[in-house]
Amino acid sequence: MITSNFSIKGQIVFTLLFVAACIPANAQKSKKKSKAPNYQEVINEAHAKYKDVKEGANADYIEELAKVNPNIFGIVIVTPKGEVFTVGDFSEYVSIQSVSKVFTMAKVIEELGPEALLEKIGADATGLPFNSVEAVEHMKGKEINPLVNPGAIMSTSLIAGTDSAEKWNNVQATLNSFAARKLEINKPVYISEANDNVHNQALAVLLQSYGRMYWDPREITDVYTKQCSMNVSAKDLAIMAGTLANGGINPVSKEVVVSPSTVSHVLAVMSTAGLYDDSGIWFYNTGLPAKSGVGGGFIAVVPGKFGIAVVSPPLDKAGNSVKAQLVIEHVVNALGLNPYLIKPVGAKK
Ligand code: GLN
Fold first, then answer.
1. 56 CA to centre of ligand 1 in angstroms
2. How many CB atoms lie within 10 A of CB 216?
3. How confident is the model at residue 11 (pLDDT cuts 50, 70, 90)?
4. Do 210 and 154 meet the contact criterion of CB atoms below 8 Å apart?
5. How far is residue 146 from each of residues 100, 108, 125, 126, measured CA to CA in Å?
6. pLDDT tens-digit profile of 61-101?
7. How far apart are CA 325 and CA 46, in angstroms?
8. Which of 121, 216, 304, 340 has its CA 20 to 30 A from that of 268?
9. Ligand 1: which of 65, 68, 98, 196 to mutate, most ligand atoms within 8 Å of CB?
10. How far apart are CA 289 and CA 307, in angstroms?
């Protein structure tokens, strides 16, 4: 009796399990396959929507930057699979400027480890402009971050090399690996900034006075200035951002550029300090790691999904490209990409 009772129960359980297993499969079949997001359409839309925006102005504290065509406007998305979506002036060059800071930081973390970066530079937002002396003075050169000038010059000073030339080669090789091509220096921009960068030299010397500069301050400021003067297009920047979106493997060259752990730390600092003293507002609006440069280049990373870059030289007061911010906010909203926009479950009926 007991045995047959069990077998009946067993059969019922088996049937129920079988039915349960079948339901989702059937439901799945009847459900329409969700459409892949149309990146091309969304960037076309953003380009059309913002191309006539006239707000902002080119940086002019570096003379050559004031001469750059303010109408250059390119948008590019690069996915981990290496798909490239472009619109507008995606192959026009601007100098990389502060966007380069992201990649030297990555190299330092890769070479020395995440602890060394925290100990020797820091990972705290300053809440101050990118070239602020107060940011250094306030904490005696500590608790700064590699995405503002003083922290970036520290970062470049930590790049491996037995002399400044070797450090420069290492910086170039790093930028090239992220971009999947050999980048060239924009000589007029370099000369223009090198002739007028006493302020950055002062930051480096001040850091040295606190024992927080790891190479000759003037020599390394020069390497940093060259690093900022590399020419990049929106496509280059999107490949660089795409490498971060893909956990450190370049989606185009397939080279392993840095480790996923390095990328996680880099994206965290981009999230808190990528737009200088406007980093909070940016993160509040998008929830995405990003980095701007005074040349008008701008990158943002949607981890695992894509890197996006916009080039448009006119900047707002904090030094961030006006159009780039509008475009990426548009893309984030259109595709629902803010990671903090959560689809809730379990609401009571
Ligand atoms: N080379 C520039 C400087 O040091 C970079 C600044 C920037 O892009 N915010 O002033």
1. 17
2. 15
3. low
4. no
5. 10, 10, 10, 11
6. 999 999 999 999 999 999 999 999 999 999 999 999 999 99
7. 11
8. 216
9. 98
10. 10
Q: Is the CB of 224 under 6 A from ligand 1?
A: no
Tokens of 339: 């990671």
pLDDT in tens, 173-192: 999 999 999 999 999 999 99
Angle between helices 149-158 and 100-112 (to 10 degrees): 40
pLDDT of residue 299: 99
CB atoms within 10 A of CB 11: 10
Q: What is the DSSP string of 163-228?
A: SHHHHHHHHHHHHHHHHTS---B-HHHHHHHHTT-HHHHHHHHHHHHTT---S-HHHHHHHHHHHH
pLDDT at 22: 47
Tens of pLDDT, residue by residue over 286-301, are 999 999 999 999 999 9
Q: Say if ligand 1 is within 6 A of residue 192 CB.
A: no
Q: Choose which residue among 65, 97, 154 to substitute to test ligand 1 binding: the one with the highest number of ligand atoms within 8 A of its C-beta.
A: 97
List helix spans (H) across the chain.
2-30, 39-50, 63-66, 100-112, 114-120, 134-138, 149-158, 164-179, 187-194, 198-209, 217-228, 234-245, 260-273, 279-286, 322-335
Tokens of 79: 């996915």
Burial class (CB in 10 A: 0-12, 13-18, 19+), 267: buried
Q: Write down the pLDDT at residue 19.
A: 47
Collapsing DSSP to helix, strand or coil, 14 comes out as: helix
Given this model, what pLDDT does residue 35 score? 72
Query: How much is the pTM?
Result: 0.90
pLDDT at 1 over 80: no
For ligand 1, mutation pick of 94, 131, 232 (most atoms within 8 Å of CB): 131
Domains of the chain, CATH where assigned: 39-335 (3.40.710.10)
